[in-house]
Amino acid sequence: MYTIPGHHHISMITKDAQANNHFYREILGLRRVKWTVNQDDPSMYHLFYGDKMGSPGTELSFFEIPLVGNTYRGTNAITQIGLLVPSTASLTYWQERLEMYNVSHSEITRYANRPALHFEDTEGLRMVLLAANHEKVAHWESWEDSKVPAEHRIQGMGSVEITVQRLDKLAKTLTEMFGYSEVARTKDEAIFQSIEGEVFGEIVVKYLDGPPEKPGRGSIHHLAIRVKNDTELAYWEAQVKARGFQTSGIVDRYYFKSLYFRESNGILFEIATDGPGFTIDGKVDTLGETLDLPPFLEERRQEIEAKLKPLEEES
């Protein structure tokens, strides 16, 4: 039986690609590893940020929808993203950095049994920095041009929070289908890990009754979990179908292959392969510096570029 080695990426909605580009590169110090478009609607940008290579487990991706409205928070949604930093001392550095940039944040606290610092981006996307204490994705590579000192750089995704009305339904999907371990449980919260003891595949599930979230700017569209290759993806496709979930079928995203499905609370999951990765159409030194299009869209480049608002680079 195959196992899930952790998170692959997580995808959000932004109203303003330019402001988004500034926040994640200049303030958070991440590398923009792919500047492309939504393959299902190439009139909108799709931006990826991560480590030097855009390694699986480090990728934050954003779809730009200029006319999108506000998010109305509620249940049955992915509600927070954990980002790993090297140590508790890093949280103090980040608290000072966020204050310098007037970013809304909490005091240093604890979350999912780790020292933590909650904050929001300019569109209200909820994130939490977690002191990883040497836990990080094994293949994470530091980006030397980051605006953040090497000893405090974000090292990928940690705990992802999902809020649902039916906690036990999601628990069964994670444990019985995907083989996650339940490592903690209270009345209204449970913590699951794809690899027991490791935070980079951790999902925190919270119970909340009430109306579902109405997504908008700063909302989270889906969580992608990792598989190694096409063989494993085909295996998981069969498992998802066997449990009665409808799927997208396997979709070739060029940079990876994917399968999408919604679990019983309506949470959208993607299962994505590790490769071939973002260097399939670019060199490591220049990743994310120009607009890349997958081959099936390349012949429409002139038409696509004409409909996109230019993304101005900062000095």
Describe the structure.
With 315 residues, this protein is α+β, with helices and mostly antiparallel strands. It has a single domain (7-307), classed as Roll (2,3-Dihydroxybiphenyl 1,2-Dioxygenase, domain 1). It is 19% helix and 35% strand. It has helices at 17-27, 88-100, 167-177, 230-242, 295-298, 301-307; strands at residues 7-14, 31-38, 41-50, 59-64, 77-85, 105-111, 114-120, 126-131, 157-164, 181-185, 189-193, 202-207, 220-227, 251-252, 256-262, 268-276. The termini are far apart. The mean pLDDT is 96.
Can you identify the CATH superfamily?
A: 2,3-Dihydroxybiphenyl 1,2-Dioxygenase, domain 1
> What's the end-to-end separation, in Å?
49 Å
What shape does the CA trace take? globular
- Percent strand equals 35-45%
Report on the biggest sheet.
8 strands, mixed
Q: Kindly state the percentage of residues in helix.
A: 10-25%
What does the radius of gyration come to?
18 Å
What is the number of beta strands?
16
Strand order of the largest sheet: 2-3-4-1-13-16-15-14
What is the typical, i.e. mean, pLDDT? 96
Order of helices and strands: EHEEEEHEEEEHEEEEHEEEHH
Q: Helix segment count? A: 6
Q: Tell me the quaternary state.
A: single chain
From the 3D structure, determine the CATH topology.
Answer: 2,3-Dihydroxybiphenyl 1,2-Dioxygenase, domain 1
For the record, the CATH class is: Alpha Beta
